[in-house]
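Q&A log
Question type: sequence-to-structure
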Amino acid sequence: MNRREFTKTAAGAAFAIALPACSVLDAAADTKPTMPFKLSVMLWTVNKQLPFEQRLEKVAEAGYGAVELVNEFLKWSDEDFRRMNNKKRSLGITFDATAGVWKENIDQEENAKYYLTSVAEGFEIIRKVDNPHVKFLYDFFHEQISEGNLIKKLEKNIDQVGLVHIADVPGRHEPGTGEINYANIFRKLAELKYERYAAMEFEPTGDVVTSLRGARELALHSVGAS
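Response status: OK
Response body:
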């Protein structure tokens, strides 16, 4: 067998494994669109009593490939950093952001003395800064409590959004437990061609893996992704 024959045979075998027993055209026609934006998990919401590595395992088990940190790493030694990086690589997980909670819009119920309680004002600040590297964290949970009207503000300011956080009201639990229609929000994010991260920042009402899977499946189903 020469090189050309081997290449054709190997490619055919790989293609046969990857596709079901149907024609290439049928397979293409049945393919659903992929997720237009990325999903992540705020790690502070995941089994706080467990060691860091086990919490990462829970996130991976639920089907996510990224986590966001707040201050979990502040007391790590050099060896801790090496160990945690090895663990995330073994699980196929990315640290996509570190979010200082002292710079999110926060609702007045959570912190009555906090200055920024309106995303509208936050977006205005970002526009005045006018730096392409400065974007706004749109936290739907806080804004629903503060002012509501979530989708209109998303449509008007999508170019200024760098990250969105997901939790339902009341209670900061998983989508579907409260008053926010997250199916519509996920669809709107896709419609507006949002490509950055949507981070789950809810406290599960039950098993954390089950709750995270449910939120991920809602997002996938809402945008028609596989």
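Response note: Residues 1-30 have pLDDT under 50 and may be disordered.
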